[in-house]
């Protein structure tokens, strides 16, 4: 058996997500992590405040919590949309990452009620070829251990539709090079970033079916 002091010293080297996962290894590890306060509550809380749930039919996000426990956060995000309540667009969570929520118009922290406006993404100067046209999905990137105030939003294309007649027989997905639109909270603007694929392609476009992930994100 490893002494608690030695185990605590090793566990301190882990990132918050890895440390949280280590609590599930065994009761002894959980006791060491909790008793010594290794898991910082401001980076990764140990309690569940509620669940944001997307409803496909009404394109709206609802917040579920247990009233008897006293929710630590509020699911009301209308403070991010100034104006008349009757004219507000529906609140819909597109993505989430380490406590931040990505809405259509902003990125918000429901725990602190801080939010940042997200301007509309510009069109690509060179539209992709017909075989590469697909429904884009916005994804949020945020690591509070690196910077509590910095986040990025990436627009990633989904697998092109199976009904695309112009799909090339030898086209790979994802391609070896992909240009994505990225929003940086540091510059508060959108920019283009080129990504190179590492390793082999997932498959050839004719053999892949475009998913409907955008309709079922939760």
Automatic annotation (TrEMBL):
Keyword Signal in record: yes
This protein's UniProt keywords: Signal
UniProt xrefs under InterPro entries: F-box-like_dom_sf (IPR036047), F-box_dom (IPR001810)
Signal peptide (from-to): 1-20
Occurrences of domain F-box (ranges): 1-48
Organism (species): Triticum urartu
One Pfam family per UniProt: F-box-like
PANTHER family tied to this protein: F-BOX DOMAIN-CONTAINING PROTEIN (PTHR34591:SF29), OS03G0653100 PROTEIN-RELATED (PTHR34591)
SUPFAM superfamilies: F-box domain
UniProt protein name: F-box domain-containing protein
Statement: the UniProt record of this protein carries the keyword Cell inner membrane: no
């Amino acid at each position: 058996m490893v002494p608690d002091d030695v185990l605590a010293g090793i566990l301190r080297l882990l990132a918050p997500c890895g440390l949280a996962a280590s609590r599930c290894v065994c009761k002894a590890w959980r006791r060491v992590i909790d008793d010594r306060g290794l898991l910082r509550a401001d980076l990764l809380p140990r309690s569940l405040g509620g669940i944001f749930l997307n409803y496909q039919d009404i394109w709206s996000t609802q917040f579920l919590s247990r009233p008897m426990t006293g929710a630590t956060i509020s699911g009301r995000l209308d403070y991010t949309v100034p104006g008349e309540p009757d004219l507000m667009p529906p609140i819909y969570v597109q993505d989430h990452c380490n406590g931040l929520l990505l809405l259509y118009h902003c990125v918000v922290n429901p725990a602190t009620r801080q939010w940042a406006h997200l301007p509309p993404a510009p069109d690509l100067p060179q539209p992709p070829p017909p075989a590469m046209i697909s429904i884009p999905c916005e994804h949020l990137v945020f690591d509070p251990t690196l910077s509590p105030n910095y986040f990025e939003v990436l627009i990633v294309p989904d697998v092109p539709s199976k009904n695309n007649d112009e799909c090339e027989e030898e086209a790979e997905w994802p391609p070896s090079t992909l240009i994505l639109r990225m929003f940086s909270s540091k510059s508060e603007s959108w920019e283009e970033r080129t990504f190179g694929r590492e390793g082999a392609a997932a498959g050839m476009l004719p053999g892949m079916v475009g998913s409907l992930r955008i309709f079922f994100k939760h």
